[in-house]
């Protein structure tokens, strides 16, 4: 019978659609389940648990997991049992009450757990209820990965604060979210159906996240409405069984904009009383609210500076309000003036954090945590660690990481982020000449603070994949794992995630590992390298290339690129002095070009394009080469993924393949745009003569056009030859034709075109009177990145038809049917001989 059920479950599993909603909690049957089932206990005891308690959840989860993995349904009871063959899960208190003391007990810290599994007996003891649930998830993760050997160990968190931030707006949209609308809000209010919120809390609990800030840091005062406070209570109720506490972002001006006071001065007793009252109202409904997150005096947000009060005055006002309830105030260090003047060589946004916060060290209440982005600017593809981590010795700090890939491909490019985070977390800032790794500062250990930890901007949406991309989920998984234990290796974390998400096939494991581990270096290579920042469009969507957008505005993400030189001079000697914000050993390293690592050269130094790197290459040649190398690696991801056909279920296989093909095409847009831009600016040729030289291309503007006309694209570098074609009207078709002058043969025919939001143009490609393909400009439905209404580096994309027979003299014909504002724009057609990508 048991065997029959296993077989049945296995069969079900194989046909079941894998839409991504189960993420890494699939509990798929493991190979050799027959063997392992023999050593699995026959009963689960969730000690003294009552419904809605995390220990109860642990019991249910163990039951669910074991049913999935072994096809066996175990009973769960709340009473201690003397049966030998049990899984007992409980808190330290209930466990010792039932079974007596055990040696490891005294080493358990808050949220920590003890897991001891030997044969039929499994003991999971949490320091608290949450810890017990974490221990249960840990045991299941081991079983699901086929680890059945005996274990006995204690695991404690690196830091007490392990939160996510969700930038959800009350109208249901999500700032920098790429997976559909909000799971928390709709039409101004908390959603009625909270099922998916509970599912999300479960996912977070499994990676030991203990808090969520559910609304955008650019906060809407209406989150405080009576109806929304009721809604917060409903959300907190469904997250509580998972040990995940709810918190909210606040708008600093709420007393005025919502409360009708005539001030929001943090030192005005009326304002103080107003916040205390609001806070009391919320805690009456959500007694275990985690606390508040505040973005003040940043990017147009209100804050204490309006009243000549300090940021600490502002933070402490909230701290007083939540203090009676044990609440925490996360206060963002992302404060800067976005109207600085580039003509001032010494102006530097990267200095803002220290300018605003250094003098406030020690002035924040003990329940305030200053939440610091990992680098001094804004989640760029590479930044040095923020010097603020080493400057605050008497203030709690947390590191803010971004899981949502705002500047890093918006979930349409594979970028496994753990290696980036690790570089920052392991970076030793040498405060006071002593070891001061970022991970040990935010854990609260280095400066011996009461609080510290992690805030990860996730922005999950209603899409079944959670983040819009199956592969992007490794980032959420890794975030939780690193927040618990930052000493873990990124590749080991990744491989746990792969086994849990895709199963045990060795080729699947090796392939996804290889792709993921190359993905950040590849993205850095074809976007912005040498520390110049991502080079995306900082004034628009943060997705595609637009290097010029960095400069000549007040945002301070400058590159200071001119005809001869590039980079920010952040030296003390002649620049903005930013290098001097670091403790002396680090400051000296960054002050000197010789000791600055190449990958941060242009972050700290302004140099000629002909400056030699440690590799021996010039800066400009490195740009050219790295953009070619990175985009070439992105092409290999497609082939690597294709090699997994049949080893991954079709639904996920197709979904991922679509994105990898997109990335491969868009990486070429990146490569050519950045290389063209600096080639044009510097007029320094590429040693390998690739840049500006594309022998396999037929430029659309060189074709015979009927109903189409040439169009100068802006930014210019995002079109091959700076020009594309668009239909002459927004209703009638355009036709572009040309005689093929390439030698007869078999080619991959690639069409580069622009897919704008606001229309779904249709295209038809013919060669020699044969239809090669037809497609629709509907990526806005299929990809989920921030769309563009222009022909630019965000909308530029490629479609490829493989193995097309072409004869010299054949006519190639593209017909474009415009739709809405989308004038069926085309950039060029490439005829690529086998093995060539251009
Ligand atoms: C069970 O385990 C034994 C020894 O570990 C092994 O020889 C055998 O092949 C396993 N059987 C199954 C069905 O996996
Ligand atoms: C599980 O519980 C059911 C219903 O209470 C009971 O009939 C069954 O015998 C139990 N199974 C085991 C193995 O204890
Ligand atoms: C757990 O439940 C048992 C039986 O109901 C009770 O005797 C014991 O005191 C409880 N333990 C705790 C710590 O509440
Ligand atoms: C609530 O949402 C879940 C999925 O998120 C869905 O399965 C369920 O049917 C919804 N319930 C209602 C009452 O709409
Ligand atoms: C406290 O807030 C509630 C709800 O917004 C409001 O009804 C009440 O008047 C406030 N009390 C004070 C003293 O401001
Ligand atoms: C803040 O201080 C500045 C300079 O001291 C002064 O001009 C300004 O009026 C003050 N603003 C307020 C709101 O007090
Ligand atoms: C920047 O400063 C320069 C020199 O002082 C001045 O000419 C220019 O108008 C300023 N630009 C802006 C945008 O304020
Ligand atoms: C999720 O997004 C994909 C596009 O990436 C889309 O095809 C799919 O329909 C979406 N699914 C849900 C449930 O929103
Ligand atoms: C020093 O700074 C000036 C601007 O103040 C800049 O023009 C010059 O290039 C810098 N010199 C060096 C050696 O970097
Ligand atoms: C990135 O570029 C560097 C420098 O050119 C090169 O050594 C490295 O192999 C490239 N890596 C990837 C993944 O593109
Ligand atoms: C293609 O070649 C034919 C004959 O050589 C010529 O008449 C025709 O105009 C050419 N068409 C295009 C689009 O260049
Ligand atoms: C295709 O059709 C066009 C127009 O009907 C003709 O001029 C052309 O020669 C045909 N053949 C090829 C191989 O392009």
Automatic annotation (TrEMBL):
Kindly state which keywords UniProt assigns to this record, in alphabetical order: Carbohydrate metabolism, Glycosidase, Hydrolase, Polysaccharide degradation, Secreted, Signal, Xylan degradation
Cellular component terms, GO, for this chain's entry?
extracellular region
State the Gene Ontology BP annotations: xylan catabolic process
> What residue range is the signal peptide?
1-17
Record domain Glycosyl hydrolase family 67 catalytic: where: 147-466
Protein family membership: Belongs to the glycosyl hydrolase 67 family.
Q: Per the record's keyword annotation, is Glycosyltransferase included, yes or no?
A: no
UniProt function note: Alpha-glucuronidase involved in the hydrolysis of xylan, a major structural heterogeneous polysaccharide found in plant biomass representing the second most abundant polysaccharide in the biosphere, after cellulose. Releases 4-O-methylglucuronic acid from xylan.
This entry's Enzyme Commission designation comes to: 3.2.1.139
* Organism expressing this protein natively: Neocucurbitaria cava
The protein here is known as: Alpha-glucuronidase
Its top-level enzyme class, in one word, is: hydrolase
- Record localization: Secreted
Its recorded reaction(s) are:
an alpha-D-glucuronoside + H2O = D-glucuronate + an alcohol
Q: Where is the active site?
A: 299 (proton donor), 378 (proton acceptor), 406 (proton acceptor)
Superkingdom of this protein's organism: Eukaryota
List the GO molecular function terms: alpha-glucuronidase activity
Is this entry keyworded RNA-binding? no
Query: Which intervals hold domain Glycosyl hydrolase family 67 C-terminal?
Result: 468-689
Q: Which residues form the Alpha glucuronidase N-terminal domain?
A: 23-139
């Amino acid at each position: 019978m048991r065997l029959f059920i296993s077989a049945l479950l296995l069969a079900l599993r194989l046909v079941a659609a894998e839409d991504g909603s189960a993420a890494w909690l699939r509990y798929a049957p493991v190979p050799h389940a027959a063997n392992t089932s023999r050593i699995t206990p026959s009963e689960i005891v969730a000690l003294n648990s009552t419904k809605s308690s995390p220990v109860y959840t642990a019991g249910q989860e163990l039951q669910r997991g074991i049913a999935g993995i072994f096809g066996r349904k175990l009973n769960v009871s709340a009473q201690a049992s003397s049966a030998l063959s049990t899984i007992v899960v409980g808190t330290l208190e209930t466990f010792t009450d039932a079974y007596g003391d055990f040696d490891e007990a005294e080493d358990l810290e808050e949220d920590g757990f003890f897991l001891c599994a030997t044969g039929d007996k499994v003991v999971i003891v949490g320091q608290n209820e949450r810890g017990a649930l974490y221990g249960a998830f840990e045991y299941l993760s081991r079983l699901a990965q086929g680890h059945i050997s005996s274990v006995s160990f204690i695991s404690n968190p690196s830091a007490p604060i392990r939160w996510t931030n969700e930038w959800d707006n009350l109208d249901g949209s999500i700032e920098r979210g790429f997976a559909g609308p909000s799971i928390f809000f709709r039409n101004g209010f908390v959603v009625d159906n909270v099922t998916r919120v509970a599912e999300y809390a479960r996912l977070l609990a499994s990676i030991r996240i203990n808090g969520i800030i559910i609304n955008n840091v650019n906060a809407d005062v209406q989150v405080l409405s009576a109806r929304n406070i009721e809604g917060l209570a409903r959300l907190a109720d469904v997250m509580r069984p998972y040990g995940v506490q709810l918190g909210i972002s606040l708008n600093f001006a709420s007393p005025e904009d919502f409360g009708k006071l005539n001030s929001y001065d943090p030192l005005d007793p009326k304002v103080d009383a107003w916040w205390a009252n609001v806070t009391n109202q919320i805690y009456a409904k959500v007694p275990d609210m985690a606390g508040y997150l505040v973005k003040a005096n940043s990017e147009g947000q209100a804050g204490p500076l309006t009243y000549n009060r300090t940021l600490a005055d502002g933070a402490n006002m909230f701290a007083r309000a939540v203090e009676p309830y044990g609440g925490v105030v996360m206060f963002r260090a992302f404060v800067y003036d976005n109207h600085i003047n580039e003509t001032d060589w010494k102006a530097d946004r990267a200095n803002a954090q220290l300018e605003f916060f250094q003098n406030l060290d020690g002035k924040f209440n003990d329940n305030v945590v200053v939440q610091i982005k990992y680098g001094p600017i804004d989640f760029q593809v590479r930044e040095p660690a923020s010097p603020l981590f080493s400057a605050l010795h008497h203030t709690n700090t947390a590191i803010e990481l971004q899981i949502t890939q705002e500047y890093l491909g918006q979930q349409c490019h594979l970028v496994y982020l753990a290696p980036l985070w690790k570089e920052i977390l392991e970076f030793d800032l040498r405060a006071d000449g002593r070891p001061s790794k970022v991970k040990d500062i935010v854990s609260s250990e280095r400066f011996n603070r009461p609080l510290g930890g992690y805030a990860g901007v996730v922005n999950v949406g209603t899409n079944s994949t959670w983040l819009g991309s199956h592969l992007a989920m490794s980032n959420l998984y890794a975030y939780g794992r690193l927040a618990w234990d930052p000493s873990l290796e990124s590749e080991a974390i990744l491989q746990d995630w792969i086994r849990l998400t895709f199963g045990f096939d060795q080729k699947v494991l090796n392939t996804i590992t290889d792709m993921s581990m190359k993905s950040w270096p590849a993205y850095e290579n074809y976007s912005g390298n040498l520390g110049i920042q991502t080079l995306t469009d900082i004034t628009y969507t943060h997705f595609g290339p637009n290097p010029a957008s960095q400069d000549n505005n007040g945002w301070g993400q400058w590159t200071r690129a001119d005809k001869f030189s590039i980079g920010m001079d952040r030296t003390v000697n002649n620049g903005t002095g930013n290098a001097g914000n670091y403790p002396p050993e680090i400051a000296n390293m960054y002050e000197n070009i010789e000791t600055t690592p190449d990958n941060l050269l242009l972050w700290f130094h302004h140099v000629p394009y002909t400056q030699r790197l440690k590799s021996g290459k010039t800066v400009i040649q490195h740009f050219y080469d790295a953009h070619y190398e990175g985009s070439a690696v992105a092409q290999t991801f497609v082939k690597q993924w294709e090699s997994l056909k049949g080893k991954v279920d079709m639904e996920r296989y197709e979904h991922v393949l679509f994105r990898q093909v997109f990335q491969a095409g868009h990486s070429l847009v990146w490569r050519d745009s950045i290389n063209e831009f600096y080639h044009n600016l510097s007029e320094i040729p590429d040693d390998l003569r690739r840049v500006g030289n594309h022998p396999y291309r037929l430029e659309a503007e060189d074709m015979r056009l009927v109903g189409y006309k040439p169009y100068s694209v802006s930014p210019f570098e995002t079109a091959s030859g700076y020009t594309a074609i668009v239909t002459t009207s927004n209703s009638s078709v355009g036709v572009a034709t040309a005689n093929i002058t390439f030698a007869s043969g078999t080619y991959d025919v690639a069409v580069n075109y622009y897919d704008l939001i606001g229309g779904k143009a249709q295209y038809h490609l013919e060669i020699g009177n044969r239809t090669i393909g037809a497609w629709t400009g509907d990526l806005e439905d299929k990809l989920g990145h921030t769309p563009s209404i222009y022909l630019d580096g965000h909308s530029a994309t490629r479609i490829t038809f493989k193995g097309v027979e072409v004869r010299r003299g054949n006519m190639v014909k593209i017909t474009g049917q415009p739709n809405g504002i989308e004038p069926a724009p085309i950039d060029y057609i490439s005829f690529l001989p086998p093995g060539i990508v251009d």
